[in-house]
Design goal:
The protein has one domain (about 30-380): Regulator of chromosome condensation 1/beta-lactamase-inhibitor protein II (Methylamine Dehydrogenase, Chain H, 7 Propeller), CATH 2.130.10. The chain contains no helices and 28 strands. The N and C termini lie far apart (about 40 Å). Mean pLDDT is about 95; it is low at about 1-10. The strands form seven sheets. Strands 1-2-3-4 form a four-stranded antiparallel β-sheet, with no helix packed on it. A four-stranded antiparallel β-sheet has the order 5-6-7-8, with no helix packed on it. The chain is globular. The protein has strands spanning about 30-35, 45, 55-60, 70-80, 85-90, 95-100, 105-110, 125-130, 135-140, 145-150, 155-160, 175-180, 185-190, 195-200, 205-210, 225-230, 235-240, 245-250, 255-260, 275-285, 285-290, 295-300, 305-310, 325-330, 335-340, 345-350, 355-360, 375-380.
């Protein structure tokens, strides 16, 4: 294992381990899975390589994005983007969705009970509607009840619920229009968990704010913060978050995680069963990661996926339902280019030929496959008649 600092003070620093420096791959297509935290309510968004967005699963609040709302569906829909526009990125919250378009605009749709659509009201939308921002955006992220956007000048704006500081504006009041994150500049990427945010700055440092009961802010304090705090990381090229867990991938393809570990989702074995409040190196040769509420996925440089944590409903993708505290192989998959995990216990992965695989729970028809029962399966199963890279 790489060596890292074990200093749990708020001023700790982390030395990124040595390894080969190579740009992290950018997938032609990507996937975003909702962060509901419960069995019901999960939905899937896939940004296809042609810039269109497919959706399926829970749809009561208009998550399909096609102007309709209704029961969960395994019929794949196409999100109605503004005329002439294509999506560069997608993000899924608890029951709302976001897309970053090719002109830098941000559109949102779905549930809006906390103002998470950023449209100045709490009215739910079933079609994408443009958020008012003063400059083009370059990155987006969605938490359970809030949203985040990075503008091309490095400023970060948030909107939605603010119960525990997830908006980063040093306030306590929910906002239905974008507000600026306090004292944060030069950001290039963001990631959102259920109630916390990670921000990657151009210099490779990582800052975080919001909930911290599991140590997911990485500052060692286990105290929530309403303004950004430093994780002590440097040399980072990618950030990811899910549930109460955080990930940072270095330019040298070492991956660090911090936050919840009650189900062994950090993959550190029986020796560590408590939550981790400072960034901890967990693997090398990793290019991406994803987390649900109780498990985690790693994408290796070799295109293989591994998983650790709770195996509720087969969410580890190893064909069974036995939990594990070390990372092991997800069956069947190879040449994976994008992945995500969420709902409560299901995951999605796209492979290089555009085939999209789903495993875990299927309560709200996450598999887009009428042949799969609600209980789902622990074996990754291809979405029929769907190509994410046409």
């Amino acid at each position: 294992m790489p060596s890292v600092s074990n200093d749990h003070s708020t001023s700790s620093t982390v030395t990124v381990v040595a390894g080969e420096v190579a740009a992290l791959p950018k997938a032609a297509a990507d996937v975003a899975v909702s962060d509901t935290g419960v069995i019901t309510g999960g939905f899937v968004l896939v940004r296809r390589s042609n810039g269109s967005v497919a959706s399926w699963g829970h749809a009561v609040d208009g998550q399909r994005g096609d102007g309709t709302a209704g029961a969960a569906t395994d019929t794949i829909s196409t999100v109605t983007l503004p005329a002439g526009r294509i999506a560069k990125a997608v993000a899924a919250g608890g029951s709302h969705a976001m897309a970053l378009l090719d002109d830098g605009s941000v559109v949102t749709w779905g549930l809006n009970d906390s103002g998470q659509l950023g449209l100045g009201d709490v009215t739910t939308r079933s079609t994408p509607t443009k958020v008012t921002l003063d400059r083009p955006a370059v990155a987006i992220a969605a938490g359970r009840l809030f949203s985040v956007a990075v503008l091309d000048d490095g400023r970060v704006f948030t909107w939605g619920a603010n119960t525990i500081g997830q908006l980063g504006d040093d306030g306590r009041i929910a906002q239905s229009v974008p507000v600026r994150v306090k004292d944060l500049t030069d950001v290039i990427e963001v990631a959102a968990g259920s109630e916390h945010v990670l921000a990657l700055k151009r210099d490779g440092s990582v800052w975080a704010w919001g909930a911290n009961g599991s140590g997911q802010l990485g500052d060692g304090s286990f105290k929530a913060s309403r303004v950004p705090v430093s994780t002590g990381l440097s040399g980072i090229a990618r950030v990811r978050a899910g549930g109460n867990q955080s990930f940072a991938v270095s330019a040298r393809r070492a991956i660090y995680s911090f936050g919840e570990s009650g189900d062994g989702q950090l993959g550190l074995g029986d020796a560590i069963s408590t939550d981790i409040g400072v960034p901890t190196a967990i693997a090398r040769a990793v290019t991406d990661a994803a987390a649900g509420d109780r498990m985690a996925l790693l994408l290796g440089s070799n295109g293989l996926v591994s998983s650790a944590g709770s195996n509720e409903s087969g969410s580890l993708g190893d064909g069974g339902t036995t939990a594990r505290k070390i990372f092991g192989a997800v069956n069947v998959l190879s040449n994976v280019v994008a992945l995500d995990s969420g709902g409560r216990s299901f995951s999605v992965a796209i492979v290089a030929d555009g085939t999209t695989y789903v495993w875990g729970d299927n309560t709200t028809k996450h598999f887009a496959n009428s042949a799969i029962a609600a209980a789902g399966t622990g074996t990754p199963t291809a979405v029929p008649n769907f190509d994410a890279i046409p």
